[in-house]
Amino acid sequence: xxHPVIIIGAGPIGLxxxxxxxxxxxxxxxxxxxxxxxxxxxxxxxxxxxxxxxxNIDAACRRLLETPSAGYAGNWSAPRETRLPYGEEMVxxxxxxxxxxxxLAPRIAYNHRVKAVSRITPAxxxxxxxxxxxxxxxxxxxxxxxxxxxRDLVARxxxxxxxxxxxxxxxxxxxxxxxxxxxxxxxxLITSPLPDPLGADxxxxxxxxxxxxxxxxxxxxTLLSLGRLKQRHPDTEILWGLRGDANPIRLYGGGDADQxxxxxxxxxxxxxxxxxxxxxxxxxxxxxxxxGTSHLTVSLADGRELVVDLLVPATGFRPDLSMLAELRLDxxxxxxxxxxxxxxxxxxFHSCGTVAAHGERVLAxxxxxxxxxxxxxxxxxxxxxxxxxxxxxxxxxxxxxGDRTAADRVDLQLPETGVCSTDLAGSCDAPAPEAxxxxxxxxxxxxxxxxxxxxxxxxxxxxxxxx
Length: 467
Prior knowledge:
alpha/beta; 5-stranded parallel beta sheet; disordered C terminus
């Protein structure tokens, strides 16, 4: 029996990994925690990407969709390449047709949430983390939570493309949850990282007092939406909490002098809302405790207290490594990316466009046959670009198929851009700033990541040609 390569996550990177492996005639099984493809992306479907369709489609996925085969006409037509899609369009027009392809559909198992990954011998005996003998000859066992109960699946290799969407950073200081934070989230007083104040969440935000915590493009996305909301509902109050001091360059960029016009436009729009009093800027907001049932009292380290109706946590994401506890990982101690990748992506030194091309060798762990890819491979760094993820899985698929030459031939051309904020709620590679097609990264040749930025922002602001 030939055991498959198991891919965790049916998002763009996970499906791209499957497509590349299929091209190499490898057995593949995709496990998706959600009930449908692109579950995380659906959570921010109202947000528009900053990169055009031309850069949002993986090459192997395009070949799969456009090539006729037995039982498949191959008549998928790519959306107009100059158009900027919303998250929901990315799912509907690309991921759904891809997941329904006869080569992929039977290989995707939905409602399969991976709880743990470990190793076993070919005969089925246990191989825990401490056992070294013949480890490279062992298989993987992947334990899933399914509607029918727990299930163990066996694989010859595992690619973790599960992302970080379900693992937001806490609002508390020092990387810790504030006291009472879990209860406040459960009560709905702390929102999702990317709410929709002008659409689905309008009634929840209108005429409320809202604290947005964070200094990156995701925070700016929400703040600009709230600024527009306040224009319609003047009694809406908007507080912008920064964990440090307000640095105008960091907050607003160079305005008209910015080499990236869209970034300058984003900063200029945000600056106007602050300067006209629509948004109140608060510095050194180190949250120690939150409490409340109908309103939220936010206690700060310096003794201040803020009373708000809602808190938006635009504070970033981190990888969930708990399910990998029985594997031998080699991670950068600060970024929590693969050790060799960590120095290449550290946001203190690298922007979106200065990350070197990297593939299977850089992403490898001491655990043979196991890889973390996509947004999760960047750990806590916010500089991930979708084009990077596509190149990652192309290289890994080649390596797993035994084509070492193709695996080592990595090539990724990214534009050098400005320094990306370390307080982003996701990657730089996402929806664009207001009225432009860039964010902290320009749109050539990059694509989707987690949603940050505000090009046109939300569905009810659409005036574009969606044909």
